[in-house]
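protein under study:
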Amino acid sequence: MNDAMIDTPPKRKRRRKTAARKRTGKKKTPRKYGRFFLILPLCTLLTAIGVFFFVPQVWQELGGLLPVAERQKPANQLHEIREPDTAEQLARILFIRRAVEARLDRSNYVPIEHISPELKKAIVAIEDRRFYEHTGFDLTGMARATLVNIQYGRIEEGASTITQQLVKNLFLANEQTFTRKAQELLLALDIELTYSKDEILEMYLNVVYYGSGFFGVNAASEGYYGKSPAALNLPESSMLAGVPNAPSELSPFTHFIAAKKRQAVVLDTMEAQGLIDARTAEDAKMQPLIFRPEESEKNKT
């Protein structure tokens, strides 16, 4: 009987296809990555639409955050700004700077030159490895985070840059809506056009929450270790840098084991990025941390 007339059972057909793939060396692309490449263009399109339609709303809401006294403040009372190309750009830059100044708490503020280099490197490594390359939002980082999250089936890696996190801390409510995300991207871009990278990092370190009631790097450094941010060593810095990811769950006072695991992730990330060598990373993991005793006991009760 002709083989072409024989109805091959489905299972045998699947086995033959598998055997054929093994002979040709071709591998089937996992479905999860296939879904990613379908979702990414859609997300990009939706973001572009949101940026187009929500620009007026962003500026209206941001204007509402600016007190009248701040709006009327002369330009020479603000920080020195980069020379803009047009009067419109100058107005936009001044608008952003005044809005930011209205939201910053300068009473506990620390200039970046008075913050430990180890902490600055640790924060950038774990929160935003491409901080010095992107312009407020990182499409490469978003794609990488999406792949990782699809692979694990849950949120394992965030996609917000340090600039986006600064925007959220200063201006936006903590809600996951498309409108809010479009606002976040627009404001992040304006922050990048208005401030230098060091200024952005300085503001971020001074406004972010480090757990146990400590807002800003000065409060966290004094609260956890009883020392200034400039005096933090690598073990202390790597511990502190890991907290903003989940402050209520990673405070070394209330969740020390989880905080130590996160510290190890920070140090491994710094090693992978060539910021420290393997020996330095292991030494930092093993070095005991000395916390401020009265604050530690207060947080345990």
In short: Residues 1-8, 24-30, 61-82 have pLDDT under 50 and may be disordered. The first helix runs from residue 10 to 24.
